[in-house]
Amino acid sequence: MSRVCVFDHPLIQHKLSIMRDKNTSVKEFRELVSEVAMLMCYEATRDLVTEPVDVETPCGTAHCNRIAGKKIVIVPILRAGLGMVDGMVNMIPSAKVGHIGLYRDPATLEPVKYYFKMPPDVSERDAIVVDPMLATGGSASAAISFLKDAGVKRIKLMSIIGAPEGIARMQKDHPDVDIYVAAEDDHLNEIGYIVPGLGDAGDRIFGTK
């Protein structure tokens, strides 16, 4: 069974409280999404392997550690996932960024892939899939299936808020994928929004509603 990590860091929880406020402006909301993603990225990459290296300082030799050649691809689910990318790239400047676009088929209600662009060596990289809201889990599960089809073997999912339904769906469909969230909320309402949540993350990031 995959591991679910819920962040309780005071800085993350403080910023999340402002994000939830319906009166928070588009500008501030967008900045907070990026900042929270950056803070979450710090913990989600804790298991990166390092190797020893000696560095000459102005005063002598320091015995240090550097990341041991780990290749990472950050994969936002369009469109809301884009809001998390800049914060993560600030933390991992060498990371490549892939994109997955999905829409829900009105007849089957299943996610359909309309865009999939990855670096050529994606199968050799560790993937971190990002989407601010893990609601039903349908889009996240489909995106991860598409990555596995592309040969990616090591995948994590990072969302700002998760619903119990979405977490359960992910653990059922992908028990090998660890899940990172800043909060696990109460439930989904009748139209699939997380309660209490923060509304539609994409609309609040891009000011489209």
Report what the structure shows.
This protein is of the alpha/beta class and 209 residues long. The longest helix is centred in the first third of the chain and has 19 residues, at 26-44. It has helices spanning 10-20, 26-44, 85-91, 138-149, 164-173, 201-206; strands at 4-6, 50-57, 60-67, 72-78, 96-97, 99-104, 111-117, 126-130, 133-134, 154-162, 178-184, 187-188, 194-195. Helix 1 packs antiparallel against helix 2 and helix 2 (26-44) crosses helix 3 (85-91). The protein is built from six helices and 13 strands. 31% of the residues lie in helices and 33% in strands. The strands form three sheets. Strands 1, 4, 5, 6, 7, 8, 9, 10 and 11 form a nine-stranded mixed beta sheet that branches. The protein has a two-stranded antiparallel ribbon with strand order 2-3. Strands 12-13 form a two-stranded antiparallel ribbon. It starts with a strand and ends with a helix. The radius of gyration is 18 Å and the shape is globular.
Uncertain runs with pLDDT below 50, 5 residues or more?
Answer: none
Topology pattern, helix = H, strand = E: EHHEEEHEEEEEHEHEEEH
Question: Based on DSSP secondary structure assignment, what is the total number of beta strands?
Answer: 13
- What is the overall pLDDT average? 93
Structural class: alpha/beta
The end-to-end distance, rounded to whole angstroms, is 38 Å
Counted by DSSP, the helix tally is 6
Strand count, sense and barrel status of the largest sheet are: 9 strands, mixed
* Radius of gyration using CA atoms only: 18 Å
Beta-strand percentage?
25-35%
Helix content: 25-40%
What form results from the Cα inertia axes?
A: globular
